[in-house]
User: Fold this.
Amino acid sequence: ETVDQALRGLARDCAATGQPLPIIRAARLTADQFEVYLDEPTTLPAPWTGTADAAVWRFEADHQPDLDTDDLHTIPAPYPSLVTIGKDTEDETGLIFLDLEYLGSLGLTGPRQLTRQAVAALAIELASSPWADDLTVTIVGDYADLEGTLRSGRIVYVPTLEKLLDR
Assistant:
């Protein structure tokens, strides 16, 4: 909820001030705060607070009750391809996110079973994340039954790349 509300609140506030949405390359969530790592230094509107690095901004979790959640859910999700990639090594309860749209591509290496599980985890998060509510995840080749299991309405399965290109 903190991630979704912080990002939609940022989109609302940027639109209200005519400020373009910043490009987020990564993010970090802990029990106390949500931090975004921007592609370039900028200034974000309150309740975001800056850090010593002008490209890193912090949203304190205690600001969440101040946001009108009904109002925020009318705002399209501004960063639907933000996904969790692992735990924070500094705070074991913290999570690290990458914006796949910013990256353009993500290569995974390792044993086949682990990389397949990682891709499935990314697909599941994209298909169920509240901050990706208008996103369609297309899965090619593997996990034909994933949408039937999740029933998210966001997953499309295609058996081969050729079939995807035909579509």
About this structure: Residues 19 and 85 are 29 Å apart (CA to CA).
